[in-house]
UniProtKB/TrEMBL annotation:
Protein's name in the database: Bifunctional protein FolD
InterPro entries referenced in this protein's UniProt entry, alphabetically: Aminoacid_DH-like_N_sf, NAD(P)-bd_dom_sf, THF_DH/CycHdrlase, THF_DH/CycHdrlase_cat_dom, THF_DH/CycHdrlase_NAD-bd_dom
The encoding gene: folD
Keyword Lipid biosynthesis: no
Gene Ontology CC annotations of this record: cytosol
Record keywords, A-Z: Amino-acid biosynthesis, Histidine biosynthesis, Hydrolase, Methionine biosynthesis, Multifunctional enzyme, NADP, One-carbon metabolism, Oxidoreductase, Purine biosynthesis
The protein's role, per its UniProt record: Catalyzes the oxidation of 5,10-methylenetetrahydrofolate to 5,10-methenyltetrahydrofolate and then the hydrolysis of 5,10-methenyltetrahydrofolate to 10-formyltetrahydrofolate.
A Pfam family assignment: THF_DHG_CYH_C
Enzyme Commission code: 1.5.1.5, 3.5.4.9
Species whose genome carries this gene: Peptoclostridium acidaminophilum DSM 3953
């Protein structure tokens, strides 16, 4: 049976380091602050917001929630986002997405400055990730995947990494982060031929496709590390969640695997805070 790579362990290590950084900043009369921008009250947004607030509190960081009604106009919301972005005490901005359909989200995203864009919503931030500019912030989920690999001392340089999924939120930026650490990266998707064979050839297989239990035993081989980014309703267990990997099948074969839940998702709010603290340091010339 594979070693379970638990996200809670990674998050705890990150939070311990961040607590020290926040204390050091407070000694200089600087307190990092995350601004959370939310339109409406979707349950998944509120769930993630609760986790982010809890993480901020646990490390001594500040946060402020900017909540707006679901029927806010484009003009009013643009003005609100500009105001939050202009706040000198707000170092990082998390804006929940997707926004209500009547709002032009691409235009609104670009109102956030790259210096405060701690979840990679803007084209400028995406460009920085793709060219390897360390002043840019990757989306929190792919950054969390990298933190898991680092924490458990899983070698990346020179290894074959297969990323299953090509979204701008996970697949593409994760491929760039892996490439930046000298992995040999293959991005797979729905049109990839011989998909199980391509995945089986990986040293590190990362599933981020959004299809419940898609990765079966025929996708993997002994010795692999499998990172499951997916979070889906479990078709076999109503009310429960599962990943993109069929855990029971795959864990019998591979060397290491992240569970769902309690894997990658457990690390993302710690990454969000880490990137906000780094933004704060850069904004203060530290």
């Amino acid at each position: 049976m594979a070693e379970r790579l638990m996200g809670k362990e990674v998050a705890a290590a990150i939070k311990e380091e961040l607590s020290s950084k926040v204390a050091a900043l407070k000694d200089k009369n600087i307190t990092p602050k995350l601004g959370i921008v939310r339109v409406g009250a979707r349950p998944d947004d509120l769930f993630y917001e609760g986790g982010a607030k809890k993480t901020c509190e646990s490390i001594g960081m500040d946060f402020e929630v900017f909540e707006y009604p679901e029927d806010i106009t484009q003009e009013a919301f643009e003005s609100a986002v500009k105001d939050v972005n202009a706040r000198k005490d707000v170092n990082g901005i998390l804006m929940f997405s997707p926004l209500p359909k009547h709002l032009k989200e691409p235009e609104i995203r670009e109102l956030i400055s790259t210096e405060k864009d701690v979840d990679c919503l803007t084209v400028g931030s995406q460009a920085k990730v793709f060219i390897g500019d360390k002043t840019g912030f990757a989306p929190c989920t792919p950054a969390a995947v990298m933190d898991i690999l680092h924490h458990f001392n899983i070698p990346v340089a020179g290894k074959k990494a297969v990323v299953l999924g090509r979204s701008l939120v996970v697949g593409k930026p994760l491929a760039m982060l892996l490439l930046g650490e000298n992995a040999t990266v293959t991005i797979c998707h729905s049109r990839t031929e011989n998909l199980p064979e391509v995945c089986k050839d990986a040293d590190i297989l990362i599933a981020a496709v959004g299809r419940a239990k898609m990765v079966k035993a025929n996708f993997v081989k002994p010795g692999q590390t499998v990172i499951d980014v997916g979070i889906n309703e479990d078709p076999e267990n109503p009310g429960k969640y599962c990943g993109d990997v069929d855990y029971n099948e795959v864990a019998e074969i591979v060397e290491k695997i992240t569970p769902v839940p309690a894997g990658v998702g457990s690390v993302t709010t710690s990454v969000l805070c880490k990137q906000t603290i780094r933004a704060c340091e850069m904004q203060n010339g530290l």
